[in-house]
Amino acid sequence: MTALSYTDNMEYLQRKERLTECLLKRMSAEEIVHEAAVQYCAPVILTTSLYRVIVMDDLGLEVNDPVWETARATGYCSSDNIADFEIQGITHDVLNAQNSFILDKGVGQDIPRILMKIMINDMPAAYIGIFQTGRPFSETDLRITDYLCEVLSLVLERDPGIMPGGITVHESILSDLLDGTLTSPTVLNDRMRTAYWTAKAVFQCVLITPAHKSSGIDNSAYLKSVLTGVFPGSHLVQVPEGILLVLNEDSLRPERYKHLQDVVQQFDLFMNISEPFRNLILLRHYYESCRAIRDVARKQKREGRITELKDVYYDVLSGLLKKEEKMVLCQTEYRDLLDYDTEHNTDYVTTLETYIEHGCSVTDTANTLFIHRNTMAKRLDRIKEICGLDPADGTALIRFYLSSRMMKK
Asked: pTM for the complete prediction?
């Protein structure tokens, strides 16, 4: 850098003193960026290294720049912007620069900007950009930017809410979905492209919590490595209860479920699993369903370590009703078949339940009950004779199954 003149040096010292006062008064990043914007008489943007906006301050000035407009509208630089930074070598230049510099070509051709990284624990943690919308930038502006980055490094380091340590680009997407700051499907798709996340059709949440509420999850780093090894398409994010594992598979196959059973035993954990879903923008709601499943399972003091919605769904419904109310709401055909089983020591209720659970497949049900297919078909005919329920009537089967599960709780 060239030496500053006496006048420029005095200006630099005055501006540095004001920033130091901001630091000593423990002002927020937002307040310090505003002070900086006033000093530059220019818009300032501060983002994390994952390109999430921390603060933007335009002083009411007009900024006709696509990077600024996208960041203001979405809270992030777009994947197209980030790709431009990479192609034009801007990312490389910022990461390798020892001091702030002026970008006046490529994306900075129309509106030059001062760029610099902000280091925390010897790692690039944030980026700052000052947009030239008025007077040209001076050597003093560059010098004060270097000091501003030092100040912001100290401010950001003490605020884990802004700069969560060690978070990955995938975790940042999940975190923003969970806290409600990411609500646009278009922005979500854009950020997933930026993260090279090619999603499969089906998602599923697994809330992982310690067996004892008073303790944390032991060896959580090792646990994460185990889970990502078993579920290579999955992503994990910290939540207040423990860890949320977001599966992204076409289905949770039986062998994968067995892996979950092994993990909960090995690490002394509980897992609550949401229903499968196809739209990641709804992640927050399915996470909440996992929490609800966990609460119901705790109240029931369930013995199993893995609980799915289907395991507590009927318990929730049944818990709202008294025993006599359940009897009134039960399907007549179910009660008639149950009475017949009780009187004749038969098991037609279980036969019909199994038939429903196996997709109304005579063959699959027969195999499960270890009987011949013809025997199974005869049982369905006999059920119709006993209680009048037609095994081909889907609505009647639904009411039968609800009645059966409700009365067992």
From this structure: 0.65
